[in-house]
Amino acid sequence: MTSFSATLDDLLSTLVSGALQRRLPTRDQALALLATSDDDVLDVVAAASRVRRAFFGRRVKLNYLVNMKSGLCPEDCFYCSQRLGSEAGILKYSWIATEEAAGLAAKAVEAGAKRVCLVASGRGPSDRDVARVADTVAAIKDGTPDVEVCVCLGLLKDGQAARLAAAGADAYSHNLNTAEEKYADICTTHTFADRVDTLRGASAAGLSPCSGAIFGMGESDEDVVSVAFALRELDPDSVPVNFLIPFEGTPLGDRWDLTPARCLRILALFRFVFPDVEVRLAGGREIHLRALQPLALHLANAVFLGDYLTSEGAPGSADLAMIADAGFTVEGRDETTLPTVRAEQVAVRRRGAGTGLPANT
């Protein structure tokens, strides 16, 4: 055995034992993991898979996106096909009807989805928009009361998160996307701090916080670790890991930096940083992981089923076949996603909501 193999074995053993005790890796350990070679990627996946199985078994949670409003966003996020000035050939439409959104959600639930994510383009919602989304949440819950509803509307104003929670929404999604130090390289119309404030406000209102990142935008290993650690500090219950879909007509339309092995190492890092949290395999998985997608299921315990906001995903039937062929099972709506200790913490936070904390606490 070479000295490097011994060093790798020691690193992975330390990461596994720490994650099983919910300890955050050190920055040096996280960077060392990302620096491992492609020859060692199966060892990395096997180690992180131990943590995934310890907290989530072989269950895969299915999530489904409902794009309620598409395109014409005033923000300039360089990765986004809906950005200000985008020349990407996407559908652009205003708010779909409540009945249509509820119908799409019902079909997703029939296909096995446990969480429905209501998403709308824009900097943030008006109070009228919040009322519209609240009606949609109520309509979905009326048809399938046990389905989780997550809302993603951009930056929130004071009081809006509380109104969404009162309407029955379970979670609010707002990604940090990249490291604070790199944020100005991917967006100039709002800041990293704006996103942090919205996520904290949603959490204070009793909504389960959902926040992740996008990779493949030219970030360094240091950036990957920084955003992972920043997310850990915010303590989300769900962490979507996206890989850039390079849309022609956007500033990042020519970036094809990722390899399947790089994606797997990033996912492994997120499993070690978030051992008892839902790590979701999200946008771009099909084009960057390609034939290695089944390996990613050994790291992530959730996936998006079907299409994304403005791009096609794999057919739902293909995803279900992949999950079964890889030896995993679809998580039922009567099963609790998070481990017991984590689920109890979420319940306590929701019970403590509305106690007078300011939205940006």
From TrEMBL:
Keyword field: 2Fe-2S, 4Fe-4S, Biotin biosynthesis, Iron, Iron-sulfur, Metal-binding, S-adenosyl-L-methionine, Transferase
Binding site for [4Fe-4S] cluster: 73, 77, 80
Domain Radical SAM core: 55-285
Cofactor binding note: Binds 1 [4Fe-4S] cluster. The cluster is coordinated with 3 cysteines and an exchangeable S-adenosyl-L-methionine.
Residue numbers binding [2Fe-2S] cluster: 117, 150, 210, 280
Keyword S-adenosyl-L-methionine among UniProt keywords: yes
Enzyme class label: transferase
Cofactor (UniProt): [4Fe-4S] cluster; [2Fe-2S] cluster
Record PROSITE patterns: RADICAL_SAM
EC number, UniProt record: 2.8.1.6
Keyword Metal-binding (UniProt): yes
Pathways per UniProt: Cofactor biosynthesis; biotin biosynthesis; biotin from 7,8-diaminononanoate: step 2/2
Reactions catalysed, as given in the entry: (4R,5S)-dethiobiotin + (sulfur carrier)-SH + 2 reduced [2Fe-2S]-[ferredoxin] + 2 S-adenosyl-L-methionine = (sulfur carrier)-H + biotin + 2 5'-deoxyadenosine + 2 L-methionine + 2 oxidized [2Fe-2S]-[ferredoxin]
Similarity remark: Belongs to the radical SAM superfamily. Biotin synthase family.
PANTHER family to which the protein is assigned, alphabetical: BIOTIN SYNTHASE (PTHR22976), BIOTIN SYNTHASE, MITOCHONDRIAL (PTHR22976:SF2)
Subunit structure as annotated in this protein's UniProt entry: Homodimer.
Function: Catalyzes the conversion of dethiobiotin (DTB) to biotin by the insertion of a sulfur atom into dethiobiotin via a radical-based mechanism.
Alphabetized HAMAP family for the sequence: BioB
Record protein name field: Biotin synthase
Annotated organism of origin: Catenulispora subtropica
